[in-house]
Amino acid sequence: MFTGIVEEIGTIQSIKRNPNSLQFKITCKTVLSDVNSGDSISVNGVCLTVNEYGPAYFTADVMPETVKATTLQTLQIGSPVNLERAMAANGRFGGHFVSGHVDGTGEIISVRSHENAKYMEIKTDKQLLKYFIDKGSVTVDGTSLTIFEITEHGFVISLIPVTQADSVIGGKQLGDFVNIECDMLAKYMENLLAKRSEQPATNGITKATLAENGFLDG
After folding, report:
1. Most-buried pick from 1, 17, 40, 105 (CB within 10 A)?
2. What pTM was computed for the model?
3. Is 123 exposed, middle or buried (0-12, 13-18, 19+ CB in 10 A)?
4. Nearest to 189 by CA among 145, 131, 129
C-alpha cells in the first residue's frame, strides 16, 4: 500500500529486456535507507519487488502482464522515475490509498500554465471514466493528484510547483503516456454495488443461509 507521495526521483541505470518481461536496475538514495529484499517500491505508480540492492541502487523484475499494462516498457536507460516505499504504519498519510496496481494508461493531450500551476488534460480509456469525479483523487505515474475537471476524454489535473519539481509528471510533455490508477474506494464501491444488485429481493437472506449460520435447526 502506498500514499502517492513521491519520495524521490530515481534513474534507470540498466535494463535487461526479455521477450515479454523486464528487469530494471534503478539508482536512488532515499528509498534505500531501510530497504530489504522482498520490499515493495512503487516505480512510476507500479508496485515492484526489490530483488537486490546496494548503497545506491536496487533491481526489480517486471512480469509480462505488467509490461503490457503499463508504460514501464517505454523506459530507457537514463529515464527518471518516481519512487515511493510502501506506506509505514507509523507515518503520516498525506495522499490517498494507492495500491500500485495500474488500471490503465493515459495520454497527455493538452498542457498549459497559469501563474504557478501547470494544467494537464489526460485522455484515458472510456472504461475508466466512471471512476473519476470532480475534486476526487487519481494517481498519475505514482503521484497522488486531485482531479480539477472531468472531460469527454478523461480528466484535468493541476500541478503545484512542488509537484512539478519533485515528480516526473512535472516534466511530461504533450503526447507523453502515463500510468493511471483510479481511486481504490471507487472501485470497491462499484464491486459492492454490483454484488448487491445480484442479490435477490431478500438481500441474500434465505432459509438455506439462515440454516448454515445456525439460526434454524435444518
Report:
1. 105
2. 0.85
3. middle
4. 131
